[in-house]
């Protein structure tokens, strides 16, 4: 029996749809999805891992870059590290005094 593989375009499309539905639920007041936004970077980590496995580990640079950025984003979102603790801060606004990537409540 022949098995069909899920394409990376399908996974990315599903990710866009999930994020869009969360945005719709938030803006219409249907649901509070603030916890969802905390874990959005984890979806990108999973997307990077999927891309690594789907390519048979032949395409490594792009997925590893996505995973690295998403892990840093997740650590900041969970207050594990502040954006001033990250090695690259030039475009994040962290180099200005009194700024941080923490969301305002």
Structure description:
This protein is mainly alpha-helical. It has one domain (8-85). 54% of the residues lie in helices and 0% in strands. It is built from four helices and no strands. The radius of gyration is 17 Å and the shape is flat. The termini are far apart. The model has no long low-confidence stretch (mean pLDDT 81). Keywords: Membrane, Transmembrane, Transmembrane helix.
Rg: 17 Å
Q: Write down how many β-strands occur, each being a DSSP E stretch of 2 or more residues.
A: 0
- Kindly estimate the percentage of residues that lie in beta strands according to DSSP: under 5%
Distance between the termini: 53 Å
The shape is flat
Model regions low in confidence, pLDDT < 50 over at least 5 residues: none
Q: Which structural class matches the secondary elements?
A: mainly alpha
Classify the helix fraction into a percent range: 40-55%
Instruction: Provide mean pLDDT, rounded.
Output: 81
Largest sheet: none
The total number of structural domains is 1
Note the run of SSEs as H and E: HHHH
